Amino acid sequence: MQGSFGTGTTPAARPRPQAHPGCADRLATPEPLQLTVLGSASPYPRADNPCSGYLVSHRGTRIWVDAGSGTLGPLQEHVPLADLDAVWISHLHADHCADLLTAYYGLLFADVQRAAPLPLFAPAGTADRLAGFLTNTAHPSQRSPVESAFRITELHDGHQTVVGSLRLTSRAVEHGMPAFALRVDADGGSLVYSGDTAPCPALTQLAGGCDALLCEADSAGEPVDGEKVHHTPEDAAATALASRAGRLLLTHVGPFLSPAEAVQRAADRYSGAVDYAGPGSSFTVGAADREAAS
After folding, report:
1. Rg value, the chain, Cα
2. Across the strands, what pairs with 162?
3. Segment Disordered: which positions (predicted)?
């Protein structure tokens, strides 16, 4: 499930030139991404599995991707809130963002010391949604100071930004509400996270040629009525195949599927490596994944 790669170093006597933000440092050996699964349960946390949340790490940059119920605790096994570089939220369903509420208390009213608010990339309206829950009075002048805890940037289709050594690209996807998928590119690897979505061209395009696709598989079958808003395991396999992903990591497996069943159903349709993103698991994501799939 987890691989290892060598990391190059630059001699101390040779100053490293300043690279343009987001560009690979050509003097360093490319380094793969590290994905740590904080939780992957749907739609509520289980005793041994929080809801959706992931830590993406690379060269000292650490990003909390989705903050589902119960993920703040295991996040701190790897990085304290004081040292986190950013948070990215796919959509405003509680199983993907609820732990922003307790993170707010930690950032403003506890022992967490930061020089500036924590960067938060999230759908439009996030600040008001958080404030609506956190404000303890109806008086407008006493609205909870959400912006003192988080420096919020609202996502839009095609949004791009650079955080440390990582370039983040977001695309709007199809979940019956504002929702986004994420591509994380580093000098030594690329990871795409579906968020919650039905299969859609935007996700396939975003995932094109990625080293690993972290894709939800919430649905056991096609919806009886209403619009489709999730992937089945077969859908996840089809998205991985169409996007030429190096490997497929299934997450957010729904309550009417077992992880083993989801992996088997996807593997029947996709010839690359298929794994379950179980809580506490860690994956090294790099070019070796794409090479193995070719």
Report:
1. 19
2. 167
3. 1-26
User: Is residue 8 in some structural domain?
Assistant: no
12 in any annotated domain = no
Which CATH number is 85's domain given?
3.60.15.10
> Phi/psi zone of residue 209: left (φ > 0), alpha (ψ -120 to 50 degrees), beta?
left
pLDDT of residue 294: 55
Please state the φ and ψ torsions of residue 230, each to the nearest 5 degrees: -140, 170
Strand 166-172 and strand 160-163: the pairing is: antiparallel
Number of domains in the chain: 1
The pLDDT-based confidence of 156 (bands split at 50, 70, 90) is very high
Domain membership flag for residue 19: no
Determine the length of the chain: 294
- What's the pLDDT tens digit per position in 247-278? 999 999 999 999 999 999 999 999 999 999 99
Q: Is residue 4 part of a domain?
A: no
